[in-house]
Design brief:
Length: about 240
């Protein structure tokens, strides 16, 4: 059984549920697990101060993935605002033991100051590299990623994978972390894994974003009814 750890933000439960549904519906022997910050706090595993620059509740807790998965094999992490368009076993099949992690090496430098219907849009090197990650949990460098480590080092250190050398970070095709309304099919092919990084059709101001119809279709498959205005996520 392959594992996908998915970031979870409490007021965006439907976003997580649609992501999970899209992944598990198309991927045999794959199970999704939410990374819930409050549960980790309740257990004393996560205790650092709130990330004032983080736009989600999992901006830092995502890096607990190796510990949560028991440092065994390969696992995947993804943000909650994703939609699988194909079997994620195809991504797992790209795993290469030479690397500690494998990511899409985006050069994502947004000029907007706001995303997600009101959250601050931060810019930093290697932005969005940590939003979809194949983790090689048996790589010796990843044994460093303990709860104590995640609670103590800076967000910058984590999001830039600074415990690794550059040659320990492998690359996966852009189709596996397709930034909606940033990546372009005419130039970069077809997406396999959509990432509504700025906001999806579940937010009031993003209902006309690219691929909105695919997210809405997945919602309908999951719930048996169409998405309505009353279902829009409030911040």
């Amino acid at each position: 059984m392959r594992k996908v750890f998915v970031g979870y933000t409490s007021y965006q439960d439907v976003v997580y549920q649609v992501a999970k549904h899209s992944i598990e519906r198309q991927s045999k022997d794959v199970t999704c697990y939410p990374i819930v910050q409050q549960a980790l706090r309740d257990l004393g595993i996560y205790y650092r101060d709130a990330d004032s620059r983080g736009s989600t509740e999992f901006s830092i807790t995502r890096f607990l993935t190796p510990w949560l998965a028991g440092y065994k094999g390969w696992v995947m992490f993804c943000d909650n605002d994703v939609l699988a368009l194909t079997d994620v076993n195809e991504l797992f099949d790209l795993a290469d033991d030479r690397y500690a992690v494998m990511v899409v090496k985006h050069e994502h430098n947004p000029t907007e100051t706001v995303k997600l219907d009101g959250q601050v849009q931060s810019c930093y090197p290697r932005k969005n590299w940590s939003s979809v990650v194949l983790w090689n949990l048996e790589h010796p460098k990843n044994k460093m990623i303990t709860p104590e480590f995640v609670n103590e080092v800076s967000p910058k250190y984590l999001h830039r994978f600074m415990w690794l050398e550059d040659n320990e970070i492998g690359e996966i095709p852009v189709s596996w972390n397709w930034l909606v309304d940033w990546n372009n099919e005419q130039e970069e092919g077809k997406p396999k894994f959509l990432h509504f990084t700025d906001g999806g059709p579940y937010f009031k101001n993003y209902q006309d974003c690219s691929y909105a119809d695919l997210w809405l279709k997945e919602y309908e498959l999951m719930t048996g009814r169409a998405f309505e205005q009353k279902d829009i996520v409030d911040l």
